What does this fold into?
Amino acid sequence: MPDVPLVLLVLAVPLFWIAIGLIGLVLSAIRAFRPRILFPLGAFGAVLLAAVALVALPQPPTELILPLGLPDLPFHIRLDPLAAFFLVLIGSVSSGISIHAAGYFRDETAARCSLICLQYHVFLASMALVVLADDAYLFMVAWETMALSSYFLVTTDHHLPAIRSAGFLYLLIAHLGAIAILLCFGVMSGGHGDYTFEALRGANLSPLWATVAFLLAFFGFGAKAGMLPLHAWLPEAHPAAPSPVSALMSGIMLKTAIYGMVRVVFDLIGGVRWEWGVLMLIVGAATTLFGVLYALMQHDLKRLLAYHSVENIGIILLGLGMAMVFIGFGHPAAGMLGLIAALYHTLNHAVFKGLLFLGAGSILHSTGLRDLNSMGGLIRTMPHVALYFLIGALAISALPPLNGFVSEWLTFQTALQAPILANGVVRSALPLFAATLALAGALTAMCFVKVYGVAFLGQPREPHNAEQSSAASPAQDAGAMERLGMAWLAVGCVLLGLFPTAMLTMLNTVGIALVGQGLSDEALASSWLWLVPMSAAQASYSPVIFLVVIVGVVLVTFLLVRGFYHGRVRVSDPWDCGFPEQTSRMQDTADAFGQPIRHVFGPLYLMRRELPGADDPAPRFFLKIEDRHWYWLYLPVARLAEYVSSRIALLQQGRISTYLVYSFLTLIGLLIFAR
Amino acid sequence: MSVAAESAFQILQSAFVVLAAPLLMGWVNMCRAWLQNRSAPSILLPYFTIGKLFHKDAVIAARASPLFRLTPYVLFGCMWLAGGIVPVLAVDLPFAPTADIIALVGVFALARVFSALAAMDIGTSFGGLGARREMLIGFLAEPAMLMTLFTAAFISGSTQLTTIVVSLAHREFAIYPSLAFAAVAFAMVLLAENARIPVDNPTTHLELTMVHEAMILEYSARHLALIEWAAAIKLFAYATIGIALFAPWGIADGGNWAALPVAVGALALKLFLFGAGLALLETLLAKLRLFLVPEFLSGAFLLAVLGMLTHFLVRG
It folds into this structure.
């Protein structure tokens, strides 16, 4: 009987996390808080969770009814392959983040730290419960707990007004999404009053109601995921939160929204329609391009990473959309490939975005800087962080042989299955969505050349930073705990990139449970060395050989050049072009690097610029890029809401007699209609 | 054919690409000199240049990081890999399944990112300028390149270069309108990706025009030699990808020694024509302003997309 204990083991981890949070809260009153013990304990729980979920993944689903919740409305728990996959994601990524957090929060005051510890671990536990929930009731409870605990984490520095307003915006959009999800569950239950997922799965919806349920789920989960145009909270909330929290939110919390989307669309509603897929593809493509183009304009490192989360959610939506199109047209094998690509990208994004946010956190910790325009030359003072960040940057830019490339490659392969589709328009449109993906990939590479080149390479850009770093306490590399956390995720980037076939088999199990058909036999029969999505004649890729060849050539060339010629090196100043007054201020800043993009995609941005003239005595360069969505969506909606509420407020006169009239009219109305 | 023969072919082809690449560069330069009414340098000049550079002492800026010294080797490794994957002399080579065309584009992107990073490493204003321009060209050229390759992939039902070549080489001769569009787009991308006129001018050192040269200003001696060599291999690889997609006749099967002389002869003839054509293009065209390059490359992208749509509309 190994099944039931597995569920219990999995369930024990969230409880363990909540216990850690409470212990942290209690301990702070007794003595100075010790993040060095509690956060690694949380990481231990996370590793355990990932390991157990990995074991449970290929096994048939197990269910459990907990004696908790309301009377007659107990919580249902279910561990199936999809849930297990997301638990693996949560466990493996959060363990690295928790280790990093142990180092990151070491200097916090005891009171703050104990609160962070409680919220952090409740946040983790709620995400695990969202994935485990098997009824709408527990799902919504966990979902709201997740939103609230992350809200408190975002507003850790609540004395700053900017952070309070970022937190408010986050809470607002989170709740709009939650309402839509709640309504979606309501539609799916079809008025039977039974909210277990089992009942929702069995409900027979008419095509109209199924579409309504899909749209509600798409909106609700999209709001949480940061889909266009509901992304506005992401670039506000992520920079506001402490870095390990940003890593958790961007790496894992957004993925619970993807989980919800997959669960509802592929599992609960059933009968996927291709029109839904087309909608998802259009929104996904817009999200992808918009996210990366705005990321290129940012010079705040964490805002930039937040916009890249928007972009990557778009890529995941592209994969899901393709899967839905193929399944809707009756080609489950190709649809499976799209689903696998999307899920693989979900995991990959969690790993590399977690890593990048942790890197940003370490930079912030050590230099106090978030503005790229004043960084520079960090590779010399923080070599470890520089190495890990480079791995993350190459991975997110979808460069082989790292993990980001594999999932984008699989998405491309899905798009290339287009000729089997019957509908001519969709068939020729699918490769165009692949083109937007290609464009976004190349733009991401540009963006991360900017980030890495400006932050880590070159010289410090602001003179006072240079003085700081040459003074008694130079900008130091991250501490051991922080480095360990980053190294764990960096290794993940490399391994997920080098050995994708193992992941493919795992995801195949998930896909079979959802779609009912797996990948082709040839794809699964290939050895660990080769990644074959359909058949070897169609496409194959071997990241290991790829890496071995490049590394081999590098080594051989290096030794040959050394042996045949010589290794003599003269060190000198860089070439000054005959102009000896070179300063570090002449390097490209982040804004300068984005200039060609502003030129090419100018109309997309709302730009305010002040360019100094030639004979300006006090030249000043000023540039502000704003999100157009504020002006054409959010502010009109806000004004409309204010107008409507001011009208409704007329009802509220504050006089008892008026209210009595209202009651009287209501009674009359009820008497007429309730007969 | 036996694995040993195929492996021998693989080694032969890789060595051939790496060694012959500077010759193609020399041939293009020679044609260009003739067309511009200059007396041409020796066709072997690129070899002499590389050899001379290897003998010199490397000068490295004091604040260079390890990334700066690693990059030339990475570029060389990437291009070597690309030369092993593209079917140049033969199809069905053991390396061929390592990467399909999408991964091949990934190899070039990897090399580009490394060279742009190295350019920003020293912290001079030129390096950043070059890196920024290079990435601008890259993000425009990469999707156009992928669309071109997708057209060929749709025709042959595979993204494996070997399969594409086999299916295109063994069809009855017919003009595919989609391939014609794709070929023009590919030529435009080739010019942009290899720092040729009208996108970049490899022979000047003017701040207004430099892209590739601005990135490698700080390199000298063996590092510069490797970068130049890698650039030559890149041009060779692009030329052979073009040949594989649009004129794949005469290529040998892996391990088929009898077909090898024909393959070498056919390749030499095609590259001879390619070099002359490239030199002619570079002589006839003028260098574009930097901000006309996006229009040039979005033109290439549109052509590639048109090619793909044509394939779906007329099935050819």
